[in-house]
Structures are given as structure tokens and as C-alpha cells.
Amino acid sequence: MFRFLGVATVVLVSHAQEDGNPHQWDRKRRCDHVGYTPKCGPCEGIGGIVWSDKASDVNIPACTEEKGPIDTKNLKRPVWGADFTETKSHEILIGKKIDPACFQAFPGNVSTGTNCYKPQECVLTVDFKEKNAMRIDANQAGNAWGVLGNITSVIYHQGEHMWITNTLPLGFTQTICTGPREGGDPAKPPIYPVQYNWVDNLFFVAREKLEVEYGVGSKVMDHWAFGPHHAWTDPSTGIIIRMWQPYNGLQVFEPGTFHVGHDASAFAELAIDGKTAPKLARKKGGSSFRIKCTDDGFPEPPKEVDEKKMTEATTAHKASKADLHRAKTKKPRDSFRGDGFEKMSHTLNAHLRANNPSTRECDLWAVEELQQLQVLMIILRDPALDDVYNKSADNRRIRHNMHEMVTQWETINHLARKDPELARIHRDGHCHEAVMWYVHHLPQQTQDVLKQKATLPLLSYHHHVPKDGAEHTAVHQAYEEKVTCFSCHSNVMPKPTQVFV
Fold it and tell me: Rounded to 10 degrees, what is the CA torsion of 75, 78, 81, 87?
């Protein structure tokens, strides 16, 4: 959700943006109305559909200034309001990257660091007459890695508290309780919902004809700005059609979808005094996974953010001493080993069946189902376990970052669709990898929650061997990376290697 946060009120004598414009965005992508010389002119600071911090990764829409006299004294000023509903908002949320899946990305007041770019469709509900709150119902176009379906979110912002509930793969819910602060700094004051009169700060820039994104098309609009914030309005009504802030987001409101008033049920879970948290944030009857929430559903006191451990921000359960001890144990017990690949799989499958209410043989899964389960486990894992494996080059370590992994998945998915045998190899590899991640990368507490709702795959019994052909080689190499359990859980001794002296 695009939010106008902490805009500057002092004009700075400067030839560049206050934060130094670290990503070197040009004046089309970023032009601050204050703290910048010369300040923004027509068709500057317009932004567009954007997907990374890289200066060129943006599609700037066509824009021309409307010529001719404009009665600037009688312009229709931008309309916001204390009580309204916007039923169709296309947007790209931009916010500082705090966690790998970008679930906690929230617009900030500086562009430094790495940002998340989240395309989503939203319904925006505002009530500053009674509950003093904002609600965003968002449908994100895929997860942070752009694969395997949409993730829906409901976000409440009331006072200094924010609650983000995400519906994850397989129907699990995850609620994050947070108190957003400027620049993500816990020492800074909290950020409250944008007030209804923020539009009073905007200055008129120009009347422009702009090709508005998401199929809205060519529109003649009034361009307004304050600080790095820009808004384009219908000249006849003042209703906002488009907004842009280079490190907060792009937002396009479908014309005709702004309505005064709101459905009171949207805020039924919140109290007027701000002392009641949404149901899913509370311990009793709350989400499958609650993060940084007290028992009554409010954010835990803010702590200093360790940039090296940002991935822990979405970890509901931390690895216990027992989990870490198991991770450091190299050799499985005899009861977890088998003579050869097939017997190993039967032995481990027996343990999986005994400890999990619902399992399914590997050959009954589609590879996309397995990948969806793995995305969920990547979100829920505790990186501390992978740290143990990486320090000793353990075969249980996750060998690629998620973006590399997704790229490989897409490539191998395409190859495997061409041949039934390749499809079996590909699927069997994912069964082994999914089980390994579940057992070795999820804390026991997370496993206990997951197994109550999720069906787990069983290991395949056939060990595939390489064959000639480029496509077979590519699929088999990916498969071998996934069946590393054989190196520890099999009683088959490795072949001796020749030693040269």
C-alpha cells in the first residue's frame, strides 16, 4: 500500500535528494519537490511500473505538458477524506527489505538499502471518524519469488500498531504484529496512519497528459507534489487517479472506484480506544504462525534490528537447543539407516508415517504441489539451522538462494514436461528435498504446527541413474542435489578412492 510518510517540512539548500539518491535514479524516476535544485517540473518525478532498485528497471509512461493558460487560483485540490473506500487500487508497494519473502516491507522515509517491490491489487478502507484506522485488503501477484500463486493479505493500521495477516500456501495464516518506525529504526518515533488532510501539503506542478498504467489509458490530469510524493488528479473533481513515491510505491486508482463512506464491518475487530487487536493476532484462536505478537495480539516491544539476521523476522519459532544439537549431529542413528537406497526410503518413510497424521506416496504428487510446500517451508524455516550446515559444508545445507532456486525450478519444470521419465526424476528429487527441509530446516515447534494441516510427501524408492543426453543430464544433476540423504542414511559404504602420493 502506498503511504505518505514523514514528508519533510523544511526546504533544504541542496542540489541532490536529502538521502543522497544512492541508487542514482534519474529525474523521471525521482524528483523531490523540496531539497532539490531545480525542483520538479512538468513530467518529472512520474515514476512507473518498477521492479528493482536498478535505475533502469522502470517503465516510465509517456507524458506531455498541456499547453495553454491554467487558472491556478481555482484548481480543484486533491481529494482524500476521513471516511472512504477505494475498491480497486493497482499498486507496487516499495519498502525496505526486512525478510526474504518481503512480508514486512513497509514504505520508509529514505531510499537507502535494498528495497522490496511487491505488485498487488488492493481495496483500501479508511475510517478516521470513529476507529481512526486504515485497512488494506491486498492480493499480491505471487510471493516474493514470483512463483506458485498469489498471497492474500489483510493489513490493519491503527495508532502506532500494525497487523499484517498473510494467507500462505496450503491455507496457513501468518500474522505479523509490528509498530512501524521511520527507517525501520526502533529508536525512532512510531509511524501512524496517514491523516486525511495530508493533501493540504501538496503544491501544483503542471497539467499533464499521461499514459496511466494498468489499462487506465491516456488521461489529462493535474500533477501535484510535496517532498518526494507525487499525485495526479482529475482536474474537474480533484479525485486522485495516480500516485508515486520512488521508495514507497506506485498506486493507480481505477476511475470510478472512490466512494465516500465505508462498511463498518471492515473494522469490527478493532475497538475505538485502540485496545483490541484483531483475532488472528491473538494467541487464543490466532493464526497458524504469529510473529512478534504478545498473547493479547499487540506488537512486542521493538528491538534493535540486526541487518545480518533480517531473515529471522518472519520466523515464528526459533530453533531450540535440541534442534541445534540435532543439526550438529552428523551421523544418523542406526534406526534411521537402511541397506541401499530403497531400504533407506522404506525405513525413513516408516518414521514419517509414525510421526505425521497425513502422508502421501511420492508418485501421487505433482511437482508444482511439492514446490508450493517447499516455498512454505522456506518462509517458515529458522536460518540458524542452515548456518550450522553451512559452517561444515553439510549435505543438508540449502545450496542456492531462493531466486537461484526458483530459476532452476522453472528451467527443470520446462524440461521435465517433455518426457515422462524426466518428470518422474524431477518429482522424486523434490520429494526427497521436501522431506529433508521439513526434518532438518524447521524447528520442532514449526513441524508440530505444519503437520496438523499439511500432507507430507514420502520418499521415492527408486534411485535414478544418469543417462546420455543434454536434457537428461540437466534434470539428473538437479535430482542428485536433492537426494543427498542417501549419503548419510544408507548403510552402503562409499567406494574407496585412489590416493596418489
Answer: 130
Largest CA distance in the chain: 91
Which residues, at least 6 apart from 318, have a Cβ–Cβ distance to it below 8 Å?
Answer: 312, 382, 384, 443
Cβ neighbours of residue 272 closer than 8 Å, sequence gap 6 or more: 130, 131, 132
Query: If you search the block for the grid coordinates 534411485, which residue do you land on?
Result: 463
Structural contact between residues 432 and 374, judged by C-beta atoms closer than 8 angstroms: no
Give the pLDDT confidence of 126-153 residue by residue, as tens digits. Answer: 999 999 999 999 987 555 555 555 678 8
Between the CA atoms of 413, 430, 153 and 101, what dihedral angle is there, to the nearest 10 degrees?
A: -90
Q: Which residues contact 211 (CB under 8 A, 6 or more apart)?
A: 61, 62, 63, 217, 218
For residues 46 and 250, what is the distance between their CA atoms, to the nearest angstrom? 9
| Phi, then psi, of 245 in degrees rounded to 5 | -140, 125
Domain positions in the chain are: 83-195+262-304, 321-489
What pLDDT is stored for residue 307 in this prediction?
A: 41
pLDDT in tens, 400-432: 877 788 889 999 999 999 999 999 999 999 999
pTM of the model: 0.79
Q: Which three cell numbers stand for residue 128?
A: 478516521
Tens-digit pLDDT profile for residues 365-396: 999 999 989 988 988 888 899 999 999 989 89
